[in-house]
Structures are given as structure tokens and as C-alpha cells.
Specification:
alpha/beta; Rossmann fold; 2 domains; 4-stranded antiparallel sheet; 28% helix; binds S-adenosylmethionine; binds zinc ion
């Protein structure tokens, strides 16, 4: 029987996983069901993996907000840096807003530790190259990707080096000092700036750096609340400060992204 290789490795024995109609399976018989939405859960249930990333509320808020197009300039800029015809890993892909567009011109797989995020991501893209997995233990072969993208997701320098081929590129997006300062000013009396972005990265050379800065105006309360709930501020803010936003119908804020492109040395 002809077995179709999947993108992923078995998290138990690190052998190749093959795609059966509703399962990925290795030759040693470890099997992982493909959920009806089309993603596969490769996260082993151990203490290391107890944190499960973004919850349903954050995912729903991010989807609502991103679908309004506020971050479309960022999506276009990231796609331009990636180019086309590459084997891409979207690490910490979330609900797949960027992944879907990157997949139009590239072969992409996405991992995220949040099942709720992947339920949305897998519905956006027809293929089932989406796995619940940790960035700290990526279920992909050494040197199997020529581009890894990491947009506002945790870093994993050793794993990114391992999974990238020689000369492969890592593209990260990080918030700059004044990113979302307008939102923070509406909540806090003394809003702080984000820490400065660090460019140096061991084992990688910086190829390009693009600072993308613009201002967005959210003109309904629903969008303001969606933006707030997709950020960590929602979870760190007391009730009194949270309520300041329920009265707002319009909010203008800076958004500032730094897109860094590295080559693996
Ligand atoms: C701020 S969100 C960004 C999502 C997406 N890249 C975007 O920009 O829309 C961070 C994502 O990283 C995921 N995440 C957090 N820790 C992770 C880990 N250890 N392994 C994989 N994903 C993780 C979260 O579940 C979440 O989806
Ligand atoms: Zn196995």
C-alpha cells in the first residue's frame, strides 16, 4: 500500500508520520487522530506541556480584530519578505490569519500550542498541515524548512536552528516601543513603553530590518474590546481599568512592528 508522508514527525519515537484518511501514524504504530476541523494534536500530555497557549476568548477576539483588516499592511509586508516557493513553518501560527495568505504561494505548515487557535486555522486552509505542538519541541525533521516565521509568538532559538536548512531564513515580527500606546493610554494613567527590540541573535546573521509604523482608528466599541481581549493587557488589568474601555466608541492608536529577517549561519 502507498503511504503518503505527512510533514510531521511522531512525537513519541521521532519517526515519520504517514497520512491515513483520519489519522497520522508512524511505522511503529503510534497514531494521532485528525480532528474534524483538520488539525492533528501531537502534544504529549506531560508536565512540560501543561500551558495551552491562547484560550477561546483570545482566539475569538484576535480573529474578529484581524478580519477587520487593521493588520493587513503587516500581513502584506511579511508575505513580501518571505517571497514564494518556500517550505515555511509558521511557528505559533495562532488562528492562521497570516498562514492562510502565506500558503497561497508557499508550502506551509503551522504549529501552535492552542487547540482553540488551530480549530480556526485549520478551517481556513484546506490541507491539514496544522499540529498542536510546542515551539520548544517542534515535530519536524532537522533541516526540513527553508523559512520559519514567528509573529508575536515565543522564541525557540535552538529548535529554529535545528529545523531550518543550511542558509534558511528566520523571519520574526516584534512589537516596537510605541506599539498600541493609544490603547494603553486609554486604560492606564501611566502607560509604559515596550522594551526596545533586540536585533542580535546567536547563530544567525541579520539580512534585513523593516520598521512598519502606522496609526489605526477603531470606530466601534466591539473592535476596541476585541483588540483589548487579544492582548495580555486584558488579563493583567483590574476591573476598574477594564471598564474604561466599555464607554469608548472610538480609539486611535499607533501600531509599530519590527520585521527582522535572519539567515541561519
Ligand atoms: C500573540 S499570539 C500570535 C498568533 C499569530 N502568530 C498571530 O500573530 O496572529 C501567540 C501565539 O503563540 C502561541 N503559543 C504560546 N506558547 C506557545 C508554545 N510554547 N508553543 C507553541 N505555540 C505557543 C499561542 O497559543 C498564540 O496562538
Ligand atoms: Zn512513533
Amino acid at each position: 500500500m502507498f503511504l503518503k508522508e505527512s510533514d510531521f514527525l511522531c512525537p513519541v519515537c521521532r519517526a515519520k508520520l504517514f497520512a491515513l484518511p483520519s489519522q497520522l501514524k508512524c511505522l511503529k504504530g503510534h497514531g494521532f487522530d485528525v480532528a474534524k476541523q483538520g488539525y492533528v494534536n501531537l502534544l504529549l500530555d506531560n508536565a512540560h506541556n501543561k500551558r495551552h497557549g491562547d484560550d477561546k476568548l483570545m482566539v475569538k477576539s484576535r480573529t474578529k480584530f484581524l478580519e477587520k483588516g487593521y493588520y493587513e499592511p503587516l500581513r502584506n509586508a511579511v508575505c513580501d519578505v518571505i517571497g514564494s516557493g518556500h517550505k515555511v513553518l509558521d511557528s505559533g501560527c495562532g488562528e492562521g490569519y497570516y498562514t492562510e495568505t502565506i500558503a497561497r504561494n508557499n508550502s506551509v505548515c503551522g504549529i501552535d500550542i492552542s487547540k482553540d487557535a488551530l480549530k480556526v486555522a485549520a478551517k481556513r486552509c484546506e490541507t491539514f498541515s496544522f499540529a498542536v505542538a510546542s515551539i520548544g519541541d517542534i515535530p519536524l525533521k532537522n533541516g526540513s524548512r527553508d523559512v520559519i516565521i514567528n509573529i508575536f509568538a515565543p522564541d525557540s532559538p535552538d529548535e529554529f536552528s535545528r529545523v531550518l536548512c543550511d542558509g534558511g531564513r528566520l523571519i520574526t515580527v516584534q512589537p516596537m516601543e510605541r506599539h498600541l500606546l493609544g490603547l494603553k493610554s486609554a486604560i492606564y494613567d501611566e502607560p509604559y513603553l515596550n522594551p526596545a527590540v533586540e536585533y542580535e541573535r546567536d547563530g544567525f546573521e541579520l539580512l534585513s530590518k523593516e520598521e512598519l509604523k502606522y496609526s489605526i482608528t477603531l470606530d466601534c466599541n466591539e473592535d476596541i474590546i476585541s483588540l483589548f481581549k487579544m492582548t495580555p493587557y486584558y488579563y493583567k488589568t483590574g476591573k476598574a481599568d477594564q471598564e474604561k474601555l466599555t464607554k469608548l466608541d472610538t480609539l486611535t492608536t499607533e501600531v509599530e512592528f519590527c520585521i527582522l529577517e535572519y539567515r541561519k549561519l
